[in-house]
Amino acid sequence: MSYSLRNSLILGGLLILVIIGFIIGNSSSVKKLNAIQSSYENNQKLLNELKAAHPDIKDQDLFLQSLKELEDQVQKESKIITRENDPTLTYKYLLDICDNFCPEVKFDFRFNLTGRVETTSYNTYTLNGNASIQALYTFLYQIESQFLLYIIDSIKLLEETEGGVSTGKINFTIVLNAYYEEDAPEFKDIPFRKLKYRNVAYNPFYSRIHAPTPDEEEQGFIDTYSVVMIGLTPDKIFLRDAVARIHVLSPGDKVAYGYLESINWDEQYAVFKLNEIGIIKEKIIYLYNKE
């Protein structure tokens, strides 16, 4: 047998082996593909049957999302009961609230007693002090809204006066319960919640409609009754006061008992909102040569 013929036979044999291997491998892949396709169709059929038997299953993702949102809300709004409580911990906690949110609040602190409700214990404390109504409101708001379970049991308020004249402060007595459980989960560092700013709308110790009352702080601002407008632009006005000083104001800037609300460039006047007697009123000042 010649050399070339022998090589041809060898190559031919190898080619046949490759073809056979390809056919066998392809057949195996086809079988696997058919098995996968069959499994997919069976699973799809089972899923369709489940959806038909339970029409609300299609809302599962929505339910899970709603559940997650509720869990997050509970986490944000829930209260924490600590394993222990004592006068030192409570006093420090209340001082931290004052330092962070209402430093004006000053109080004396006294431990009263220890009580128990089923498996939950509590210590009762009394706070006596004074503050402005706005600072006191912030203090109470933080106690009620922060993580730790402190409950205000009672509160007494009395307007502070000197010689029959109000000082603008409130004397308060607060009875506070601090709850704890020995079997409660252990929390190491409990941060303060980031709460939205809130404040009391008005002082309940004063009539909401009253005669004009001199206010030293307000009198430090521009008196709109003794100024003349000498110029304006679409976003600024120029006022001259009684001693010939020039003041430049933009909408939102403070004046005595109010603020500059807007500028009417076309009609050449400015609109102020003032509250001197408990009722907000509007005052208009025209450019001096328009009056």
Secondary structure elements and pairings:
Blueprint: H1 3-53, H2 60-77, H3 87-101, E1 106-117, E2 120-131, H4 133-145, E3 150-162, E4 165-180, E5 228-232, E6 237-240, E7 246-249, E8 254-255, E9 258-264, E10 269-275, E11 280-286
Helix pairs in contact: 3-4
**Average of per-residue pLDDT values:** 81
Structural class: alpha+beta
Radius of gyration: 39 Å
Portion of residues within helices? 25-40%
Q: Give the overall shape.
A: flat
Please mark out the parts with pLDDT under 50 across 5 or more consecutive residues, or reply none. none
The percentage of residues in β strands lies in 25-35%
Report, as a whole number of angstroms, the end-to-end distance: 128 Å
Q: Helical stretch count?
A: 4
Molecular structure report:
The chain has 291 residues and is α+β, with helices and mostly antiparallel strands. The protein contains four helices and eleven strands. A hairpin with a 2-residue loop joins strand 8 and strand 9. The radius of gyration is 39 Å and the shape is flat. The mean pLDDT is 81.
